[in-house]
Amino acid sequence: MNASRTARDRARAELTREIKEAARRQLAVEGAQRLSLRAVARELGMVSSALYRYFPSRDDLLTQLIIDAYEGIADAADAAVAGIPAADERGRWRAVANAARDWARSHPHEFGLVYGTPVPGYQAPTDTVASASRIPIALLTVVRDAHENRRLAVPDLDLAPELAAQARAVAELTGLDVPPAAMTRAVVAWTQLFGMISFELFGQLVGSMDPADAFFAEAVERMADFVGLRDSDDSHSTG
Amino acid sequence: MNASRTARDRARAELTREIKEAARRQLAVEGAQRLSLRAVARELGMVSSALYRYFPSRDDLLTQLIIDAYEGIADAADAAVAGIPAADERGRWRAVANAARDWARSHPHEFGLVYGTPVPGYQAPTDTVASASRIPIALLTVVRDAHENRRLAVPDLDLAPELAAQARAVAELTGLDVPPAAMTRAVVAWTQLFGMISFELFGQLVGSMDPADAFFAEAVERMADFVGLRDSDDSHSTG
DNA sequence: CCAAAGCAAGAGCAGCGCTCTCGTAATTGT
DNA sequence: ACAATTACGAGAGCGCTGCTCTTGCTTTGG
Asked: Which residues belong to the signal peptide in this entry (chains A, B) (predicted)?
């Protein structure tokens, strides 16, 4: 009663992994649109029809790669956060933003696969939603920590009722106690971050802020201000 | 010496237009990835090879559609701006943002074509850059007007030297006199706007701020604040 | 009026995703 | 240990794709 009992089971697991690896390799080189089941099979020395024993369709293989990409960028963000003291929420926010950008720049096609135009068939989000939410959760966790530590400069403007309700629903869904106004601002910052990364990767900034290092750094600071994260320097000044 | 002299020229121009129309129709239904030259030819009662008299490749046809899409969203923004008094810069900013979102929601596949993952061959941006810059120019024009009318609350934080240089270069390139700090913030707001629209369209907000009407409205207001656009109400209070 | 150029059509090539069949090998139940 | 079942890879094949090339026909311009 091993984890993988028979030799066939072990072979199947290994081949499934190898197929995904070959596909990811091809994805990194050619992009999602040019990813071809037949080419993956060729690289593995198999015939194309044999792949269908492991993935029912090309879209299912892509869905697996999508999940892996979400996990990859989230792992990078989590690892970056772990390197910053918990008390330095602004530093952690910065770390998540930089990790997301770095990962995107080193995995452009995988980034495009998950944050670009959805694949034609529009894959079911049910499998991907858990992985997809890890990045926003990482950002929200930083905000929650700042709020918990009474270091969040929450703006007191009130929101439209339906927006406040949505913000409260997100707080409940994620189990992260973040006030509606801060929650809304965090989502705004999240969309800004990924819009900026997309623009950089997809060439929308070529005439203006490209190369985007300085712009990115500035934007991250301004968005950290925007969500109410203070500099770790003046964390002592006020209670 | 007519604009189109011969019958053949007229036929060619008309057929080129009809091909683009059929392609756009197919794009709207199926998406860019499923757009097929053969299907377009079929719809027009032609044989597929005949299309190559008008477009050298599928990618060239797509590039034309990309340009049309840029023009379409920019036209929508310009039309919306024209409906708001020039003195109400914040209202004009709002109008551009709403027009962009409305256009994107009514032309999702065309939006994805231009702001999503680039097509595999990565089309030369030279043809598209003029059309692509119309939207950021529309946003910057609003900021420039506010600055000119001394109604822009410019933040006085100084920027990294290379960022300030880039901002000045954009100002020179566009001929729009916007101070570096405001320029940077406008670009941040631009990336936020399109990141938010992308997320709404591509399903990234489904678990949180979807439907996104209230969230979008709030984000637009906060970003208008962010770039320093005042409410039109208090435009009289200060000089 | 005639050569040149533009044109649509058809055949064809290589590639794609996917399905189905078939012989073989591994697994399971008795 | 043997038989029945199941999983598997290979191969052929279908309909589709983008694209090329050749073949006649028509329009154009000198």
From this structure: none
d(CA B175, CA A92): 39
Tens digit of each residue's pLDDT (9 = 90 or more) over A204-233: 999 899 999 999 999 999 999 999 999 876
Cβ of B191 and A206 within 8 Å? Answer: no
Tell me how far apart the alpha carbons of residues B118 and B114 are, in angstroms, rounded to a whole number: 7
Q: Strand D nucleotides below 7 A of a protein CB?
A: 7-13, 16-22, 27-29
- Rounded distance between C-alpha atoms, residue B66 and residue A203, angstroms: 14
Burial of B81 (C-beta count, 10 Å sphere; 0-12/13-18/19+): buried
Chain A CB contacts of B193 below 8 Å = 195
Top-confidence residue, A234 or B191: B191
**In this complex, which protein residues place their C-beta within 7 A of any atom belonging to strand D?**
A 8, 11-12, 15, 45-50, 53-54; B 5-9, 35-39, 48-49, 52, 56-59
CB atoms within 10 A of CB A124: 10
Is the minimum distance from the CB of A15 to strand C below 7 Å?
Answer: no
B85-117: burial string, b at 16+ Cβ within 10 Å, e else: eeebbbbbbbbbbbbbbebbeebbbbbbbbbbb
- CA A52 to CA B110: how far, in whole Å? 33
Question: What DSSP assignment string belongs to B46-83?
Answer: --HHHHTTT-SSHHHHHHHHHHHHHHHHHHHHHHHHHT
- Preferred mutation among A59, A107, A192, A223 to probe B, highest tally of B CBs within 10 A: A192
User: Phi first, then psi: what are they for B90, rounded to 5°?
Assistant: -65, -40
Coil vs helix vs strand at A190: helix
Strand C: which of residues 21-60 in chain A lie with Cβ below 7 A?
35-39, 48-49, 52, 56-59
Of the candidates A123, A141, A133, A139, which has an alpha carbon nearest to the alpha carbon of residue A59? A123
pTM of the predicted model as reported, rounded to 2 decimal places: 0.94
Protein residue nearest nucleotide D26, by CA to C1': B8
